[in-house]
Design a protein that fits this description.
Elements: E1 2-10, E2 21-25, E3 32-36, E4 44-45, E5 58-62, E6 68-72, E7 82-88, E8 91-95, E9 100-102, E10 108-115, E11 120-128
Parallel strand pairs: 3-4
Antiparallel strand pairs: 1-2, 1-11, 3-5, 5-6, 6-9, 7-8, 7-10, 10-11
């Protein structure tokens, strides 16, 4: 089971949990959870006017062994207007635009999508139940 929690945070309400969204999916091959502005395909959706987040920005996909991976999907622009960082076990690393990384089994962490133009972010916490 992969559990996600998401909060959209601006500088004015940093630390607030209003608008928190949650989603989960079983760790079965082919299971998918998406984060972005398009509410028709994303289980976790950001405000429509947050254009630094693509219509479908992040994709969590379960592979054949029940392991999950995270992909920052490429949008319509050649260069992104955000940065994506993954923090696991206190270690942060940047995710490349269009890149994919495995998530630790039985672990937790956070993905932060940071707007490059304004002090606002989308914070997605994850917990992969082993």
């Amino acid at each position: 089971m992969l559990e996600l929690t998401m909060a959209a945070v601006t500088a004015a309400d940093a630390g607030a949990t209003a608008g928190m969204q949650m989603a989960e999916a079983p760790s079965e091959p082919g299971a998918v959870l998406r984060v972005g502005r398009d509410k028709s395909v994303c289980r976790l959706s950001t405000p429509d006017d947050w254009l630094f987040v693509s219509r479908v920005h992040l994709e969590f996909r379960c592979g054949p062994e029940g392991t999950w991976q995270l992909t920052w999907l490429r949008g319509s622009q050649p260069d992104p207007s955000s940065e994506v960082r993954l923090t696991v076990g206190g270690h942060a690393r940047s995710l490349s635009y269009g890149g994919t990384v495995p998530l630790p089994g039985g672990g937790s962490g956070e993905i932060v999508v940071q707007d490059r133009a304004q002090p606002r972010s989308v914070n997605v916490g994850f917990y992969h139940e082993a």
